[in-house]
Write a structure and sequence with these properties.
- The complex is a heterodimer of chains A (407) and B (137).
- Chain A is of the alpha/beta class and 407 residues long.
- Chain A has 2 domains: 136 residues, Aspartate Aminotransferase, domain 1 (Alpha-Beta Complex), CATH 3.90.1150.10; 252 residues, Type I PLP-dependent aspartate aminotransferase-like (Major domain) (Aspartate Aminotransferase, domain 2, 3-Layer(aba) Sandwich), CATH 3.40.640.
- Chain A has 15 helices and 17 strands.
- In chain A, the strands form 5 sheets. In chain A, strands 4-10-9-8-7-5-6 form a 7-stranded mixed sheet, with helices on both faces.
- In chain A, strand 11 and strand 12 form a beta hairpin.
- The longest helix of chain A has 21 residues.
- The radius of gyration of chain A is 22 Å and the shape is globular.
- The two termini of chain A are 43 Å apart.
- Chain B is of the alpha+beta class.
- Chain B has one domain: Sufe protein. Chain: A.
- In chain B, 53% of the residues lie in helices and 13% in strands.
- The chains are: A alpha/beta (407), B alpha+beta (137).
- Chains A and B meet through helix 13 of A and helix 2 and helix 3 of B.
Chain lengths: 407, 137
Amino acid sequence: MAISSVRSLFPGLELSVYGRPLVYLDNAATSLRPMTVVEKWTQMAIDKNANIHRAVHKKASEATDEYEQAREAVRRFINASSREEIIFTSGTTASINLLAYSFGEAFIREGDEILILESEHHSDLVPWQIMAQRKSAVIKKLPVENDGRIDLQRLRENLSEKTKLLCCAQISNVLGLINPVKDVVNICHSVGCSVLVDGAQGVVHCKVDVQDLGCDFYAFSGHKMYAATGTGVLYGKKDLLDKMPPYMGGGEMIGSVSFEKSTFAPLPGKFEAGTQNINSVPTFVPAIEIVEMMRGKEFEESQRQIVEFVSAELQKDSMIKLYGEPKAIEEKVPLFSISVEGAHHEDLALILDKMGIAVRSGQMCAEPLMDRFGVTGMLRASFAPYNTIEEAEFFIQCLQKAIKMLS
Amino acid sequence: METLEEKKAAVVEDFSMFDEWLDKYEYLIELGKKLESYPDEAKTEDKLIKGCQSRVWLDWEKKDGRIYFKADSDAIITKGIISLLIDVYSGSTAKQIAEDDFAFISEIGLRENLSPTRAGGLASMIETIKAVARSNE
């Protein structure tokens, strides 16, 4: 399918702001939603509104089917080996909080270490800090190199028999580099350390096969991959999930309940307490269709063209520092975080906003990484496959104008 | 010396000349660049205005019953905005500031012209200036 046809599915691409066409380059924060997703969302709210799993009536059975079809679609999408390994959550943050609690309870003892990549989003750091405090465990930082990449030798040096888990994003939301997750997993597994991959950005830009990656856990959000907001997934290997206690109690997660003792439902229900986001989860089905539609050759070429063009333009200007420099072009997705000498990221974002360009400024929920590079914040432009090279060119022109205004 | 009302009227008149947001921003950038320098030693945590994306420091002193503000920011448009505010309110009494409605901000279209985060920052600046005034009443 051609880019122009896919664009017509996204009403957000037709919007104007301040009388100018909106150029939406904040996709790493949340993507736009296609009509197919909006329609499914609405259909669930209007036609199939019933609580799932328990009731025997017609509408409950329709809603349950939709919900479980979404689970199967997600399973196939990331090639998990069974539906029991797919836990629905409200987003990546919720997935990691669930994991931090339940993994911590099951596997972490006093003095154990969690190794976390320096470039991780706060959502892949703070839940672990909370758990570490509770379990008297130790959080260790795995530094990134000056170009933002992981040094595998440094990873080996930081692992010990005490390291129980390594947390690493497939793609950092600041650096836009595809991390060598498969190598990371192999190294960690060789010393008995489990691996959580934060796939919030990765699932959008990479074809994910959790069995091939070999990671023990993989977390991602629906809202960054065109599904409804408030949706997310935690994938976990069944043998590990089975050993972990529930995170929350009540609702669908029970086996039997008495005042003396309650037992818990089998996977995946054990981790899905309370009424789930029943109207929104089914939007994973049309969202996955769109993701797969946008993995064609034309999109691949366009994305690569954007990466090459924007990187080159940014690197031309000695006042601009681009964070996350790939060794090979294939390692970079069209997500660019920069700082500009003499121009504050917030001023740049404010001026670009008035030109119709939506970008992000600030710490990008990665304060340790900002400190690592000695900046108070950055400006980030993050492209989705529906963004065009023309939009990239317009962004560069406007950025140059904004820098000129501020100098 | 200009009264508070005269100063506000002058700002409103200045801004009435601008049709385009771009001109407003350029004006604010100029104000930011011209703002009297702020001592580094006063860039302390307690002088930071909370709720702004960029860092904004506000300091003040009371002389002959009137309040005089000093401010700085690491972002230039924000610096322009705080400069405009402190130019207007410096030299007024605590009572005048505490009782002021700050409506001229809406009159010059500044609030509507700002992104939600920035408008939040502006609200925090106004709140802090008012809090200083109230603590001096």
